[in-house]
Amino acid sequence: MSWFPADLADSVPELLSTDPAQAATIGRRIEEMVGPMRHCRDYVEARAADAREAGYLQLPIGSPILAGTYLHWSTNDPDLLIEYGEYVLPPKKVLSWDYDVDDMATEM
Q1: Which residues contact 2 (CB under 8 A, 6 or more apart)?
Q2: pLDDT single digits (tens) 31-76
Q3: CB pairs under 8 A, 24+ apart, for 67-72?
């Protein structure tokens, strides 16, 4: 589930739509308005599911889950948080990322 700044809804009306087909164009439309989303941060935590998460995943409350939060900022305005999102994964699901070691070396 993702949340975006409310003031973007005037320029990107797809943000107000509940039609899943609109989701494919939202990122591109936001980038047209505020610039590319290039700086991101993810937080991932293995923990027990709360009532909301357990209900969504159809698991007992307290079941082990992997919970994640992600933040995306605009390249043009590093103080502008464009997207905040959350996700949860039940047991026995795999989450993976691709990355280049060269990119990591420049951040150290």
Answers
A1: 83, 84, 85
A2: 888 888 878 899 999 999 999 999 999 999 999 999 999 999 888 8
A3: 68/42, 68/43, 68/44, 68/95, 69/42, 69/43, 70/40, 70/41, 70/42, 70/43, 71/40, 71/41, 71/42, 72/37, 72/39, 72/40
